[in-house]
Amino acid sequence: MKFERGPAVIRQPWHWPSSKLLLLIPITLIVVITVVDQLVPADIHLGPLLVIAPAITASFAGPWVTGVIGFLAAGAQAYIGWHFGVLFQRNVLVQILALAVLSALTVFYCVMRERRRRQLERVRAVAEAAQHVLLWPLPERIGPLTIACLYLAAEDEAQIGGDLYAATATGAGVRVMIGDVRGKGLSAIGEAALIIGAFREAAHQHPTLPDLAVALEQSVARNLPHLAPAEHPGERFATVLLAEISDDDNTTRVLSCGHPPPLLLSSAGADTVPVHPAAPLGMQALHPTDYTLDVFSFEPGDTLLLYTDGVVEARNAVGEFFPLAERAAPWGGSSPEELLHRIRRDLLAHVGGRLNDDAALIALCRAPEAPREPRHRLGIHAPMFGQGAGTALP
Question: Other CB atoms closer than 10 Å to residue 238's CB: what's the count?
Answer without folding.
Answer: 27
